[in-house]
């Protein structure tokens, strides 16, 4: 008897990249251009920089990340404030506007992480080497500096170039478990004198920041993103990437840094690209979802009321809260990039309850961060920004499209991996949550293993947020198909 057909997930990933308009490979011109860079004398703009290499900088990232974009440092002040400095890799100095590398990065717009293969926006020699804030390597960075007040609110200070030195590369899972009290201090922290108290200070500070944002109406949404676990070419499992205290810490520091950049460019009256999540189009669906949980939301969008509903549900049913979060996220709609002109009214980020937000903390991975970095350097060098307002409109629209496409690629490849994993379980039943319901189709996310598929039978009358029991009908890894029939609707 013949065994099951081998599925080449990496080939599926590359094909998905091309299908959604990405260039999965670097051209010879890009590779030659990057290979020719002299790290000591890169082609971009040189700015006079402060020397902050003596500060106890560190990074926290995934265990396998080498494209390190940011370092963090906190300093307690006599008046009860905490001064936060976030150092961002100076990637622009290696990627001049109009270069082959710049054109490739602008075209793809983002690195794409499929869980099977990563398609970086920039070649490894750049993103994982000479521009990465690797431990023990002195690097140029753009520092965003702001103060955190005792109540957790923030005050932006300034943005400036600096030389920095990463003293420790830390890992989310290890630091998170330590901060949550379930494991000892990580060895990487113990090895560096003073780093334990530095990270504890960062943790205390960001907890205050998070509580302040939540009190202002920021939404606390927690979803389950699953990554395939491979042994060679075999899919062994789908493992959820869970939020922990270390991830929350970095999230808060980056929000503060991004807001500081917006304030800096706004005060200089320089146009930029902002990150927005508009007032939800499908608020009625969110109201209906809340009503199923006996919670009344106002007829008009109200982020504070929605935050109160989510807080109540997280306390009442923490195990199912990620399912509810996913349903709300689907109804909120996607984030977008738009141009913000000097003196213009920002559109704001509904989910974060912020009016001043952008993306500027991951220039090795997102092109919009390079564009905003160039605007900062234009201010610092007192020169004309390289991108006109018309350019920014076009770039923002293109990058919004590329972000959506990247999510489609990542979702497709994860579904292909899940289809391989579920291939021998045809006919089994699963608990699930309806995540999409429209004339184009009805979609369900099953709980274990956490993956999404289409409801091809019994879908009539289902709505986003419904809990259901479904039966697996068929799988097709090469088409990214996982098909279910609805057995029955459950109650919350």
What does this structure look like?
This protein is an alpha+beta fold. The protein has two domains: 305 residues, no CATH class; 70 residues, Nucleic acid-binding proteins (OB fold (Dihydrolipoamide Acetyltransferase, E2P)), CATH 2.40.50.140. The protein contains 13 helices and 17 strands. The longest helix has 34 residues. The two termini are 46 Å apart.
Rg over C-alpha atoms, rounded to the nearest angstrom: 23 Å
Parts with pLDDT < 50 across at least 5 consecutive residues: none
What fraction, in percent, of the residue positions are helical?
Answer: 25-40%
- Largest β sheet strand count, sense and barrel closure: 6 strands, mixed
- DSSP helical segment count: 13
Assembly level: single chain
**Average pLDDT score:** 92
Question: In a nutshell, what does this entry contain?
Answer:
This protein is an alpha+beta fold and 492 residues long. It has helices spanning 9-19, 28-35, 100-108, 124-130, 172-179, 187-190, 195-215, 245-268, 283-292, 303-316, 321-332, 367-381, 389-422; strands at residues 50-51, 57-61, 70-76, 82-89, 112-113, 118-119, 138-148, 154-171, 225-231, 234-241, 272-276, 336-340, 429-438, 441-446, 451-457, 467-476, 481-489.
């Amino acid at each position: 008897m013949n065994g099951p057909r081998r599925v080449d997930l990496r080939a599926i990933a590359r094909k998905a990249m091309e299908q959604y308009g990405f260039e999965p490979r670097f051209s010879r011109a890009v590779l030659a251009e990057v290979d020719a860079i002299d790290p000591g004398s890169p082609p971009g703009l040189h700015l006079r920089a402060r020397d902050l290499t003596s500060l106890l900088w560190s990074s926290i990232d995934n265990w396998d990340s080498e494209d390190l974009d940011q370092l963090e440092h906190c300093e307690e002040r006599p008046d009860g404030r905490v001064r936060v400095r976030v150092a961002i890799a100076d990637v622009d100095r290696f990627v001049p506007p109009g270069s082959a590398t710049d054109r490739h990065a602008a075209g793809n717009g983002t690195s794409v992480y499929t869980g099977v293969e990563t398609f970086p926006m920039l070649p490894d020699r750049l993103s994982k080497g000479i521009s990465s804030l690797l431990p023990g390597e002195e690097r140029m960075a753009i520092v965003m500096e702001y103060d955190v007040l005792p109540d957790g609110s923030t005050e932006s200070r300034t943005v400036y170039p600096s030389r920095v030195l990463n003293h420790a590369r830390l890992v989310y899972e290890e630091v998170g478990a330590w901060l949550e009290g379930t494991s000892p201090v990580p060895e990487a922290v113990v090895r560096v004198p003073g780093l334990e108290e530095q990270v504890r200070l960062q943790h205390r500070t960001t907890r205050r920041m998070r509580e302040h944002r939540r009190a202002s109406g920021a939404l606390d949404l927690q979803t389950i993103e699953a990554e395939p676990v491979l042994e060679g070419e075999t899919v062994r499992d789908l493992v959820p990437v869970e939020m922990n205290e270390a991830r929350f810490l970095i999230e808060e520091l980056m929000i503060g840094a991004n807001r500081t950049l917006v304030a800096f460019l706004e005060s200089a009256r320089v146009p930029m690209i902002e990150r927005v999540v508009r007032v939800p189009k499908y608020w009625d669906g969110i109201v209906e979802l809340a009503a199923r949980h006996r919670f009344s939301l106002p007829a008009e969008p109200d982020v504070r009321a929605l935050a109160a509903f989510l807080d109540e549900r997280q306390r009442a049913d923490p195990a199912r809260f990620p399912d509810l979060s996913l349903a709300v996220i689907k109804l909120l709609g996607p984030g977008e990039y738009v141009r913000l002109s000097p003196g213009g009214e920002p559109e704001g980020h509904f989910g974060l309850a912020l009016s001043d937000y952008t993306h500027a903390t991951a220039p090795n991975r997102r092109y919009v961060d390079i564009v905003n970095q160039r605007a900062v350097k234009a201010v610092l060098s007192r020169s004309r920004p390289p991108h006109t307002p018309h350019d920014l409109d076009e770039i923002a629209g293109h990058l919004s499209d590329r972000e959506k496409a990247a999510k489609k690629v990542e979702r497709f490849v994860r579904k292909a991996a899940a289809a391989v994993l579920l291939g021998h379980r045809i006919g089994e039943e699963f608990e699930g949550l309806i995540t999409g319901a429209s004339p184009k189709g009805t979609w369900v996310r099953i709980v274990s293993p956490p993956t999404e598929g289409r409801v091809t039978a019994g879908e009539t009358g289902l709505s986003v947020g419904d809990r259901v029991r479904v039966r697996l009908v068929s799988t097709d890894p090469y088409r990214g198909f996982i098909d279910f029939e609805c057995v029955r609707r459950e109650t919350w």
